[in-house]
Prior knowledge:
The complex is a heterodimer of chains A (184) and B (399).
Chain A: H1 2-26, E1 50-52, H2 62-66, E2 72-78, E3 96-104, E4 123-125, E5 140-142, H3 162-165
Antiparallel strand pairs in A: 1-4, 2-3, 3-5
Chain B: H1 2-11, H2 20-57, H3 73-83, H4 94-109, H5 129-137, H6 140-150, H7 154-185, H8 190-195, H9 212-227, H10 252-277, E1 292-293, E2 296-297, H11 299-318, H12 326-353, H13 363-398
Antiparallel strand pairs in B: 1-2
Helix pairs in contact in B: 2-3, 2-10, 2-11, 3-10, 4-6, 4-10, 6-7, 7-9, 7-12, 9-10, 9-12, 10-11
Amino acid sequence: MTQWFKDVWEGFWTVLVGMKVTWRHLFTQPATLQYPSFKWPLPPRSRMRLFMHYEDCIGCGQCARACPVSCISIKTEKRDKDLPPAFAATGNPIKLNVTVFDIDMSLCCYCNLCTYPCPTECLYMTPEYEFATSDLTHHLYRFAKKDAKFLTENPKKKDEPATPAAGAPAPPAAPAPPAKPSEA
Amino acid sequence: MDVTYELLVRLVPALADLPSWLVVAIVAGLPALACFGFMGVGPVVYVYAERKISGFMQDRLGPMRVGKWGLLQTIADTFKLLFKEAIYPKAVDRKLFILAPLIVCTGAFLPLVVVPWGARLQAADLNVGVFFVAAISSLSVVGLIMAGWASNNKYALFGGMRSAAQIVSYEIPAVMLLLVPVMIAGSMSLQDLVAVQAGGLQNWLLFRYFPLMPIAFVAFFVAGMAECNRTPFDIPEAESELVAGFHTEYSGFFFAMFMMAEYTEMFVISAVTSVLFLGGFLTPFPGGWLQALGPVPLGWFWLILKAWSLIFVMMWLRWTLPRMRVDQLMHVAWKVLLPIAFALVIVMGGLVLWPATANGFPWDRYFGWPLTVLLFGFLIVVMVRALRWNRRRAQELAA
C-alpha cells in the first residue's frame, strides 16, 4: 500500500520534472536558421563549385590529369602565330588556344586536387553551393570562350628590372592567393 | 436569450421594430453561428498552436513559411486536405468506411451542446448535462473501431481495438470523477455546477476540500486526456508501432475529419474540466468583477481562456512524455485512477453530507484554498525558476 502511494507520487512528480524541462525549452532561442533568407557563414576554404578564369588558362591540362574522377575535359590547339601575344595574369605566355574547357560538376568529388597543379591559379573553388537543377546536363559547365580578351603584355615584365639583380628566378613566382594553403 | 436580445437591441436599435419571429431567429441564430464558427475554426487554431508549441519545445521554429510566422499554414493544410482525392482502397467496407469519420465527428462535436458559454448562452441546459457529455463523448469509440474494422488493414484494426480498450477503461474513472463535483453541486446540469462555484476564485471546486479536489482535478484531466487519445495515451494511433492506427487508410477530408474530431474532443474535455473544477464561465475575481464589460457578457472569454490553458497543458504534456505501453496504460486506468476515483467518491460523499458551513464557518474554503494556492504557487515558482535558469544559461553561453 505504501509502495502504491510512493509509485503514484513518483509518477506524478517525474511528470512535473519532465514538464519543467520542456517549459525551459519553450523559451530558449530556437536553433533553426531560416535558410534561404539567412545562411550560415562558410569557412574561408570551403570547397564548393569550381570556377575557371578562362583568360588566365594556358591549356597545360594538369588539372585534367590530376582529377581523380576525370570531370575536367580540355581540348587545345596551337595558337595562331598571327595573333598578338597573350599572357596570363601571372605572366605565363599563352601558347595554346583552349577550345574546350568543360567541368562536369555532377561528377566532381570536390577534392580540390585540380587547383593545386594549376600554374596560373586560374582554376579555383568558389563558395557557391546552391546549384541544384532539375536537369543533370546543367551541371556541365563550359568555360571556354570565343571572345576572350587576353593580356597582350606580360604583366610581370615591369617588375623584371628589379628581380634580375636579385638573382632572377626564371619562372615568375605566382603570388599565392590568400585562400590557398602552402605549396607543401 | 433575453440577455443577448437586450445586447443586440442596444447595438442595433432597429432590431426592435422587426417582426418578432425574425428577431427570435436573429437573436438565437447569431450566437449559434458564432459558437459554430468558433468550433469549426477551432481545430485550425489548435493544430497551429500544437505545431508551434512543439517546435518551440524542441528548439525549432515550427511553421514559418506560409504567412507571417506561418499563421496561414493550417489554413493551407485544410485546403489541401479538402481538395485531395478521397481514396477508397479496394478491400475496404465502403459504407462503414464513410460512416466512421462521421460518427467520430458527431461524438466529438455533440457534447458542445451542453457547454455553457455564459449564464444564458448555452445551446441546451440539460438536467443530465454531465451524463450527456460522458455518454456522447464515448460514442466516438464506435466510430474509431468502425474505422479500424472497415479499413481491412491489420494496423487499422489494431488501432481500433486499442482505442476501444482504452476509452472503455478510462471512461470508468472519468465518470466516477465526474460524480465528485456533481455530488457537491447536487445537480448534473452544467449551469448548476457553475452556479455553485460563483463568488470568486476561492469558491472554485478545484480549491475546495483541500487535498481531495486537486487530486480529483488532476485524475479527471488525465482520464480525459486518455479519452481523447492524446500523446502519453495515444496508442490507438501510435505511429511508431501502427502506421497511423485507425486512420491509416484515410485520406483527404475524411482524415481531416478525424483530426477535427481529435482537436474538438480536446476542447470539449478542457471545457468540461474547467466547468467542473475551474468555475466555467465565471471570472476569477471576487465580486463578479469583469464578468461583463458593460452590456457585453464576458463569460465566453473566461471559459475559452480556461479551456485553452488546459489545452496548452495537454500539448505541453504531449511534447514532454513518451508514449505509454499498452500494459502501462491499463495499469494507470485500473490500478491508479480507478482506486483514486472510488476513494474520492466515497470520501467526498461523506464530506458533502457533513455541512460545509458547520458552526457558520465554511471551513473547506478558508482551509482549502490557501493551501491549494500554496501548492500551485510552488509549481509556478518552480517554473519561473526554470525560466530564470534558462536566461542565465543563455547569458552564460553568449558571454
